[in-house]
């Protein structure tokens, strides 16, 4: 019987995989036969040339049917591609004799492999199946249509064909509307999957910082400041041995690159080392410059020290002998734009000094020259220029030769010296200037004290409002109350008006500063109770604090409970705190008993008493107080009615995005 041959060809693209499939290890293709047959896979791909149909000289092995199966080919633990396994069922036809070819094709590329299969004479039954051969495997793209042909070579019969539509898997996209960025996952409602956000750094392993198990289609908000070029998303089904899909959608996003530079930090590593800390790699160079006192530009060192390519999160060395507070590091991006500047020695060596930087240039035959780095350039010391360095040129050279200057850098071409300038200030004017400054400072202090006294009297007593942001309607209600109290007048502090400080300082630090200022000025902290606030209080009282990250980045109420509760537990609350809640939104019995140690007022029903407590003993007469209470009630009523009105649609919770989840 002639030796049969099989040829497989496949044309498929690549696509992320999110399936639970059989796992194949390694890069090599393979072929196996059913019992009784022998087969061999030829090395390398071959050219697919079907040819025309010819007559068979006798019985030959021919393909009778085709089957396919999706598997995974994995190169590393989590690096896998989708593959198509092809099974060819074989039979001997009495009227045909040929070699057999399989052709497997799909747009846009093609691959052909050649298999050799032999059938023992004992298995030859004309017209009946003699077994099958299985080929592993062709890499494929999800969602594409694959066409498979099987024919003999030479071709003795019309080829078999099989068309298969590979499954389309859940897809992940990113949408942006202004500063609002969302991850959109289109999956079936019953599918459960894991989602992880991580920084794909060049150095070191993957570092996930947010993970959650989810079900069904999801729209997940992202914090705009968390978007950096190396932020990647990984998705996988919650099934054993499932493949993980990863995409990094912000690689070319200009906002992501701006955020990366804002997040980058320079750190001094004594004695002369430094490191650039950043979540992603940066294409930038570092150079040293000299920052003179004042707000002028940082001047590049002359002669310029060589720029150094930056490797983030790795210690680097300065080519210096000594550090100096006026020496700064500049990070220059790949498009020659200054992105970051830090004077790293300012913390350890003190503020900027009024030192003169001398540049020594060395020529042949020990010929040396000196110039001083000034805003106008490098001024020769023994010149007739009208600059400070030129006027003091001889004295600076004497200081240099007498060892009073600090050598910062040295090589065969020159050196850098920092010479102090303090002694050249005219001493006889020091006391006069000091007396003038003290007199001016005293006058300014008296002016500030008088202005502050007048301002305090005009604006009234201080009040710090603390509340839980249950929803947007409740925030508007609190904002209406705060605005109305400012007209009483009271000096009101509320986190709604301090978003920038909250973002910069954090809720806890912001609350500490506001509480200290309010108490020192004799004001009151107002605890506004709502269902959300009551739940947070009970959570603290029962579990000694909420889980980290359970509340939003601006939730001053949740952050403040760690300081508020000790005041109540230790009896320091009376005289510093009052409570309030809104009629119809909370029942009086819902306020925890611990907080009833101070007056708790329902609003607007007890507005006069509430305003009287806030304004203290120096408040207005009762008639005037009643008028102000009516004004506040009128300002509150529209926002309160909006909160009491049944909502038209179900509101979202406190957020399901990364800011509400756990960061690992």
UniProtKB/TrEMBL annotation:
Which InterPro entries does the entry link to? Answer: IL-17_rcpt-like (IPR039465), IL-17_rcpt_C/E_N (IPR027841), SEFIR_dom (IPR013568)
Q: Which residues form the SEFIR domain?
A: 460-612
For biological process, the GO terms are:
inflammatory response
Which topology term describes how it sits in the membrane? Single-pass type I membrane protein
Give UniProt keywords alphabetically: Cell membrane, Disulfide bond, Glycoprotein, Inflammatory response, Membrane, Receptor, Signal, Transmembrane, Transmembrane helix
- Segments crossing the lipid bilayer: 429-449
According to UniProt, the name of this protein is Interleukin-17 receptor C
The organism encoding this protein is: Equus asinus (Donkey)
């Amino acid at each position: 019987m002639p030796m049969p041959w099989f040829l497989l060809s496949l044309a498929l693209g690549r696509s992320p995989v999110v399936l639970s499939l059989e796992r194949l290890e390694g890069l090599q293709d393979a072929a196996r036969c059913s019992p009784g047959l022998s087969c061999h896979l030829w090395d390398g791909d071959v050219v697919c040339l079907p040819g025309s149909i010819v007559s068979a000289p006798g019985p030959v092995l021919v393909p009778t049917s085709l089957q396919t199966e999706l598997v995974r080919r994995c190169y590393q633990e989590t690096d896998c591609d989708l593959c198509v396994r092809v099974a060819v069922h074989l039979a001997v036809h009495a009227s045909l004799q040929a070699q057999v070819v399989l052709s497997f094709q799909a747009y846009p590329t093609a691959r052909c492999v050649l298999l050799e299969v032999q059938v023992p004479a004992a298995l030859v039954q004309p017209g009946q199946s003699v077994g099958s051969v299985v080929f592993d495997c062709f890499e494929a793209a999800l969602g594409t249509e694959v066409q498979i042909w099987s024919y003999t070579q030479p071709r003795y019969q019309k080829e078999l064909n099989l068309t298969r539509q590979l499954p389309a898997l859940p897809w992940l996209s990113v949408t942006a509307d202004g500063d609002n960025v969302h991850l959109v996952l289109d999956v079936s409602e019953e599918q459960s999957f894991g989602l992880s956000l991580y920084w794909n750094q060049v150095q070191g392993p993957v570092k996930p910082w947010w993970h959650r198990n989810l079900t069904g289609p999801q729209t997940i908000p992202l914090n705009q400041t968390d978007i950096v070029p190396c932020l990647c998303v990984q998705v996988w089904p919650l099934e054993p041995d499932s493949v993980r899909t990863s995409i990094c959608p912000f690689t070319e996003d200009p906002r992501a690159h701006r955020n990366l530079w804002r997040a980058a930090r320079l750190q001094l590593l004594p004695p002369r080392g430094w490191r650039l800390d950043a979540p992603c790699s940066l294409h930038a160079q570092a150079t040293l410059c000299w920052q003179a006192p004042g707000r002028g530009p940082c001047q590049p060192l002359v002669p310029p020290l060589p720029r150094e390519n930056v490797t983030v999160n790795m210690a680097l060395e300065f080519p210096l002998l000594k550090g100096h507070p006026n020496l700064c590091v500049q990070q220059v991006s790949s498009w020659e734009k200054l992105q970051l500047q830090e004077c790293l020695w300012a913390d350890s060596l003190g503020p900027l000094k009024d030192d003169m930087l001398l540049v020594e240039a060395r020529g042949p035959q020990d010929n040396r020259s000196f110039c001083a780095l000034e805003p106008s350039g490098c001024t020769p010391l023994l010149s007739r220029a009208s600059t400070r360095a030129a006027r003091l040129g001889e004295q600076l050279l004497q200081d240099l030769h007498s060892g009073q200057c600090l050598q910062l850098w040295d090589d065969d071409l020159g050196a850098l010296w920092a010479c102090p300038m303090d002694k050249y200030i005219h001493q006889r004017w020091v006391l006069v200037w000091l007396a003038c400054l003290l007199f001016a400072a005293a006058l300014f202090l008296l002016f500030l004290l008088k202005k502050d006294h007048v301002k305090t009297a005009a604006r009234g007593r201080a009040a710090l409002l603390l509340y839980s942001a249950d929803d947007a309607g409740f925030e508007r209600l609190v904002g209406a109350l705060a605005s109305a109290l400012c007209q009483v007048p009271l000096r009101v502090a509320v986190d709604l008006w301090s978003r920038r400080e909250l973002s910069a300082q954090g809720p806890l630090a912001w609350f500490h500063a506001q509480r200290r200022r309010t108490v020192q000025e004799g004001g009151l902290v107002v605890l506004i109770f709502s269902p959300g606030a009551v739940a947070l209080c009970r959570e603290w009282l029962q579990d000694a604090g909420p889980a980290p990250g359970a509340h939003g980045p601006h939730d001053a109420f949740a952050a403040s409970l760690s300081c508020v509760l000790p005041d109540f537990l230790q009896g320091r609350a009376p005289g510093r705190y009052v409570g309030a809640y809104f009629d119809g939104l909370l029942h009086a019995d819902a306020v925890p008993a611990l907080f009833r140690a101070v007056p708790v007022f329902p609003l607007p029903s007890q507005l006069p008493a509430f305003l009287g407590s806030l304004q203290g003993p120096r408040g207005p007469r009762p008639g005037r107080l009643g008028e102000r209470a009516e004004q506040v009630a009128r300002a509150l009523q529209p926002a309160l009615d909006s909160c009491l009105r049944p909502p038209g649609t179900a509101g979202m919770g406190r957020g399901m995005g990364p800011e509400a989840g756990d960061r690992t």
